[in-house]
Amino acid sequence: xxxxxxxxxxxxxxxxxxxxxxxxxxxxxxxxxxVTRISSTALRCEGIAFSPALRQTIEVAAHAAQLDATYMMxxxxxxxxxxxxxxxxxxxxxxxxxxxxxDMQGLKPQVAAITEAAMRGELDFAESLRRRVALLEGxxxxxxxxxxxxxxxxxxxxERMLAAVQAAGLKTLLVSGGFTYFTxxxxxxxxxxxTLANQLEIVDGKLTGxxxxxxxxxxxxxxxxxxxxxxxxxxxxxAIVMGDGANDLKMMAIAGMSVAFRAKPVVREQATVALNFxxxxxxxxxxx
Length: 288
Hints:
Pfam families: HAD. Its EC number is 3.1.3.3. This protein is an alpha/beta fold and 288 residues long. It has two domains: 4-75, Alpha-Beta Plaits (2-Layer Sandwich), CATH 3.30.70.260; 80-286, Rossmann fold. The protein has twelve helices and eleven strands. The protein has helices spanning 20-28, 52-64, 97-103, 108-119, 125-134, 142-150, 158-167, 180-190, 218-232, 249-253, 265-270, 282-286, and strands at residues 8-14, 34-39, 42-49, 68-72, 83-86, 171-179, 194-203, 206-212, 239-243, 257-261, 273-275. Strands 8-7-6-5-9-10-11 form a seven-stranded mixed sheet, sandwiched between helices. The chain is elongated, with a radius of gyration of 20 Å.
């Protein structure tokens, strides 16, 4: 950040469970002008004289204490935003659906290795998806229902976060490089406004190993956010975008707030906010 040392900033520290003693210990390192208790698990240290050295010290100490530390200019509020856009796999939900589908074929290690490389940005996403889906050829489509019912779980804090943003009047977009089978069900279950994902081809009750239509890759995700914002008559700067993998970076880059949730290093480095320990509802402490 150019000339960051010329500014004072605020720092939000947050954690899980009985973390207040740890929060107060880290807060004391910042020599703040003031400290506000946002909740039982979050503090805002106000008027910190910014320096790269202090930032590194705080981030290392916070990580060691299993706390999330977010630097912010001023105080931001939820009503500044109009849209929350979320990745699905390993963001809104805890699993990578394609890896769990592959497990039904006894191919999880092979598929998961490709998924991991793609999320780190080492493979082209569209090509990696085609390779993974091809391995699913011949699988009974009933495996999708088993994954949804038996393995799909919402990420910590997801329901509380969604309840708060929906109550505040924000629209919600679930945009995924995963599959419509899961996004359609989550849209109904969670009352989401918009969804976009890839459609698996199913013939005679079995997966063909192919995806129908254009693959929702990084460009597709960014275009989806722009399209929804245009339809709402808002700027992408009025959007909060959450993701965990390299294919989320383009949509995160155009957002007013980008949130890396338990994300790959390449994503954490480029996001406005990195939440490594708290749940998705951690954004509420940043917008209080």
